[in-house]
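The pair is quoted verbatim below.
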Amino acid sequence: MEPKQISDDERRRKPRYILNLPAIMNGDGTHDVEMVDISSTGMQIRSGKYDIFKGSGFVPDKKEQLKMHFSVRLAWAEPQPDGGFLTGWKFEMESQEDYNSD
C-alpha cells in the first residue's frame, strides 16, 4: 500500500514545535534519524535510506515500540523547594557508530 498524501494542515491538529534534532532510533537495529517536530500527540521523524517498514510496506495505524536516543550535556541545574532539581540540557551531535560503541 502506498502512503496516502496528507496535507500539513490535516496532519497537525495540535501546535507543533520545530526541533530539527539529530537522534538515533532503536527499533529493528539502530538508525540515524532527525526528529523534525513534535506536539503533545505525536512527532515527525526523517529517516535515511533504509527500510523503516521492515519489508511490509506502509501500514496505516501500525503500532511500534521505538526508542529515541539523544546525546545531551548538562548545561545548568537549579535546586527546587521540594529537594529536586530543574535542569537544562544541551543537545550534542552523536552518530550511530558512537551509540553502538557504548
